């Protein structure tokens, strides 16, 4: 795809999302499978729950695209908690139990490590809790407008009550149905993962579809895709010469591109490096590039770029 074509596609995708995010709040919660739930909670206060539309609005976008999520009410959140200190937030979604590819989507407040996909039995428990939260909020708001806010322990329809089964289980991991905490105190940026069913072992890493960031002034943004790995300088780990062919082996990381540069002198005061045209993509393994030359001496370096 040409660069101009990519920009046009990205603009159209972003425009569609901005329209979706700017839609007025519905007259009732009206949860459906794959709807994305935004939950705010703090010990001693009511939970506040929003339905911010289909999770598909946040999937498959160009990596790095960022937009504001605005179809929720900061005023309602501030009114409920008085101030945003110590308030936690999370986002969750799930497919129907009959979906041929059962999936859940959750924020992860850990800054390192990667969640893995889960077994069918674990998916049944996790998906069921997410759907229960949405369905109970829908039932409780039949005659009320969204959002839904309710006592976390005294009301059996609240997010906190449902995921902890009445306060008996851990709230951070949704009653132990996840291996990571799904919420964190704002301000924070939480990774957003898709989990699917895999019954074999070892389980593959879950796909990070993006991240949600919430600032201390209540600005919520979504950034599509996982951040690219740090482009660390490559290390030359081997060098050999056969006739006029010189081979250079070096370390790589996924997402990086690599090529050789050479100079006939190490005089650093003169910018006399020549870049060779062959490019190899990194994948985390050691790669080798070659250069053919009859020069009596050449000095090589490996250039990494994106």
Secondary-structure element string: HEEEHEEHEHEEEEEEEEEEE
Using only C-alpha atoms, the radius of gyration works out to 25 Å
User: What's the story with the biggest beta sheet?
Assistant: 10 strands, antiparallel
- N-to-C span: 17 Å
The strand count comes to: 17
Number of helical regions: 4
Number of domain modules: 2
- Percent of residues in beta strands: 25-35%
Shape: elongated
In which range does the helix fraction lie? 10-25%
Mean pLDDT over the residues? 85
Describe the structure.
- The protein is elongated.
- It has 306 residues and is an alpha+beta fold.
- The longest helix has 21 residues, at 120-140.
- The chain has 2 domains: 3-224, no CATH class; 236-305, Immunoglobulin-like (Sandwich), CATH 2.60.40.
- The two termini are 17 Å apart.
- The protein has 4 helices and 17 strands.
Provide a quick synopsis of the model:
This protein is α+β, with helices and mostly antiparallel strands. The chain is built from four helices and 17 strands. It folds into two domains: 3-224, no CATH class; 236-305, Immunoglobulin-like.
């Amino acid at each position: 795809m040409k660069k101009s074509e990519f920009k046009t596609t990205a603009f159209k995708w972003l425009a569609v999302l901005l329209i979706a995010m700017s839609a007025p709040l519905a007259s009732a919660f009206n949860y459906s499978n794959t709807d994305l739930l935004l939950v705010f909670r703090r010990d001693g206060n009511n939970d506040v729950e929003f339905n911010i539309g289909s999770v598909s609005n946040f999937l498959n976008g160009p990596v790095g695209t960022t937009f504001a999520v605005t179809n929720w009410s900061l005023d309602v959140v501030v009114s409920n908690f008085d101030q945003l200190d110590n308030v936690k937030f999370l986002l969750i979604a799930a497919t129907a139990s009959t979906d041929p590819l059962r999936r859940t989507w959750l924020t992860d407040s850990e800054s390192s490590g990667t969640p893995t996909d889960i077994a069918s039995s674990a998916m049944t428990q996790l998906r069921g809790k997410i759907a229960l939260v949405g369905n109970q909020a829908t039932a409780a708001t039949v005659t009320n407008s969204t959002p839904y806010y309710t006592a976390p322990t005294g009301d059996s329809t609240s997010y906190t009550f449902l995921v902890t089964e009445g306060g008996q289980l851990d709230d951070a991991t949704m009653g132990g149905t996840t291996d990571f905490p799904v919420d964190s105190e704002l301000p924070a940026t939480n990774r957003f993962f898709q989990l699917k069913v895999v019954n074999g072992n070892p389980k593959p890493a879950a796909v990070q579809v993006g991240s949600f960031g919430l600032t201390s002034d209540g600005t919520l943004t979504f950034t599509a895709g996982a951040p690219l790995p740090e482009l660390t300088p490559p290390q030359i780990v081997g060098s050999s010469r056969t006739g006029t062919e010189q081979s250079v082996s070096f370390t790589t990381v996924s997402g990086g591109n690599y090529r050789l540069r050479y100079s006939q002198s190490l005089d650093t005061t003169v910018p006399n490096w020549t870049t060779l045209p062959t490019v190899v993509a990194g994948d985390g393994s050691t790669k080798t590039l070659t250069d053919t030359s009859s020069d009596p001496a050449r000095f090589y370096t490996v250039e990494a770029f994106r």
